Request: fold
Amino acid sequence: MNGIDFVKYISNLDTINVFITSHPEFALQGFQLKVFDFILKPLETDRFKNCIDRIYDFAQLKDKAEAYDVLFENEKIIFKEGHNVVNLNANDVIYLEAYGDYTKIVTEKKSHLTLVTLTNFLESLPAGKFLRVHRSYVAAINKVQSVGNKSIDMGIGSIPIGKTFLKEAKQTFKYN
Reply:
């Protein structure tokens, strides 16, 4: 059994895998298997140490994400997306959208989906940066372009505003 076969065999386990090999042609297969890193031989001490440091940092983030559904720390929002831990800069978030028991986190580059209700997700975020504007939407205050009577322009598109949230939204965004 080679390393690729072994990683396939243990794929159902929660492991961090690193390939160390003299065969660069295995790199693509390794990354398709979601290995953490791929190091070519001859092994360089600095490169190996860097890999170990990154694994340690990743494991700490993963532990935090597992201890909390959502964690806000040092202007970062940390949450699980499937089996991965996502570490987003809070300033990159444009809005959040409820999808049943899931929350969709929308940024300019990508959308993420996590198994946390919108209410629970919002409770983990800092006050003053995000505002609930609809039962299914939370807007990043610094991303709001304009507020109408039925929707909020977020720059990349509009999100609805609920009647019960309209007054507070207009006060927050200083639109009359």
User: Anything to note?
Assistant: The helical segments are 3-9, 27-32, 45-67, 118-123, 163-172. The chain has five helices and 13 strands.
